[in-house]
Design goal:
CATH topology of the largest domain: D-Maltodextrin-Binding Protein, domain 2
Order of helices and strands: HHHEEHEHEHEEEEHEHEEEH
Oligomer: single chain
Helix content: 40-55%
Number of helices: 9
Number of domains: 3
CATH class of the largest domain: Alpha Beta
Number of strands: 12
Strand order of the largest sheet: 4-3-5-12-6
Length: 309
Amino acid sequence: MAKSTSIELRHLRYLAAAIEHGSFRRAASALGIRESAISRTIRDLEDMIGSSLFLRQNTGVRPTDAGEQFVRHAREAIAQIDLAARAAMPAGRGEIGVLRIAMYSSLSGGFLADLLRAYQLRHPQVRVEFIHGSAVDLLPVIRRHYVDISFAIAAPEAMDCEVMPLWKERPFIAMSSAHVLADRCEIAWDELRKYCFIVSREAPGPEYAHILNTRLARFGERSAIEWQAVHRDTVMQLVANGDKLKFTTEATTATHYPGVVFRPIVDDDVTFLGIWSRANGNPAFRRFLAMARTLSTEATARATTSRIT
């Protein structure tokens, strides 16, 4: 078979999987293909672009600077192609409704998990699709209604979009169970000034980095950040095996990560926003938005009552 001379979707998917899993073997296992197929396809991709994308080691693979730059754009391309395909599917299947949500927060617990559970119980005929990504990166598809709503911590500048605070979560610090702070019940921001944080380049990493810098600036400090082009699960593995910390929020703590413990930050919270196009008339989305507003109002009332009592 002749070797492809143009970049195909499989090149991008294999590349993203290899970076996420840190090895061709684990990426192949996750994708259900042979390791040789991953290795050969990525080698072909490197030949096509004329640059090495990975440092190959006995323990696995690590992206080069070129690899990190390339995969960032590759993931955007994959998301756009997936969204285009999904947008054409419902009409062909005659489904009653589809709701497309862009998110990066955990569904293990918290407001968003409760909202989705309540919505799907009330509207079981609506198919809910999830897209991983930040509101800033997905603004073009939000405007074209390929994505109905995105959730974020920081509001992007978009005059044609609505932005609404929906819920709050308590901030937490993830750390190794052997870390010097692990025996604390709670942690104050001023106690974190001298520690290094691992932050993923993927969403919501940049927003978390902004929170770290903003909070620690109160004490005349700028947070020490080690950027990594890996998924959250890999960041947690790095945290478990070292002395660096990870900032996160309450919903994440419902997931168990071996060797990792979570400690809350005192007297603080993080507000999550909903972002959507004003012109989006999708009935499935409008019902979801109405329910989100109702649950948000109820959660705010409960929090106010709790503070008073």
